[in-house]
Amino acid sequence: MEPKGGENHSVVAEFVLLGLSDSWSMQLLFIVLFSVFYVATVLGNTLIMLAVVADPRLHSPMYFLLANLSFIDFCAPFIAATKMISDALKDTKVISFGGCFTQMFFIHFFGGSEMVLLVVMAYDRYVAICRPLHYMATVTLPLCAWLVVAAWAIGLVHSVIQLVFVVDLPFCGPNEVDSFYCDFPRVIQLACTDTYLLEFVVTANSGLISMVIFLLLIFSYIFILVSVRQRSSFGLSKAFSTLSAHISVVVLLFGPCIFVYIWPFPNLAVDKYLAIFDAVIIPFLNPLIYTIRNKDMKVAMMKLTILLGRTGKSARASCSSRARGRQTPLTHGGDKDPTWEPH
Q1: Domain 10-293, CATH 1.20.1070.10 — does that match?
Q2: pTM of the predicted model, to two decimals?
Q3: Among 197, 195, 169, 150, which Cα is nearest to 12's?
């Protein structure tokens, strides 16, 4: 692929993100919504990770995998959502050349890792539902740890492959990215060279992989439900209740991703609005979807919330007591702090 105009090196030092809208009122709405979603995402996923670590009843493979999914959903919004929030009130939304490629790398790193992790979680549910007597012997924490490492490794390889294809492209203008964050398909279109073949390769690497994993997950859930149905209708209802959270996550995660990478008209504005699902909404919904039907998780998170509340109250009481002690002398050595409450 020969660069246009004889250029053989990048001359673009930064990219301009056009964002989601030019309207001031819409930008204000987006910054409020994104901020609320981001704060809720951080708090929800942090609470899940702390609950899994703190509660011995949750020290099992299923919750270990859930904690890893929460860690991904904790990190992923930081890549795109925080940039969008900080840029919302700026007239010109600029990101450096290196920052743009770093953003693309981590978006695909976390995205690829999450997709593979969902396959691991589907395997865990298959053994738990279809072969419950073999679950403890088959799905162990060491095995899950290795599978999680494999998920992160596959996500890394996927992201590096994407980056290698794009990083050496010549960029000599224009430099406007029609979205609120950098992504490979839109950045490739800005290169000063013929990128038709490269766009096809990048689309195949992301879109077809997403499609294959999506179909694999859906077929695995169907297989589980069919296997359970053959044994009892009651078991089918229970299995569907257990899998409903996983199916919801899969549809919401893969639907927009497949549309963005497989849809034959990549310049449509709908692409950047669908990207909100992966960047903001999915990390926010995962804590809700995976806890709303899980009694053990809800109890553990409630206990942790109460414990954190008591710890904060004790810390504030201690600080208040020390402050009073510095201001007035103690007249009765045996007096107790009136703000102290037994736990």
Answers
A1: yes
A2: 0.81
A3: 169
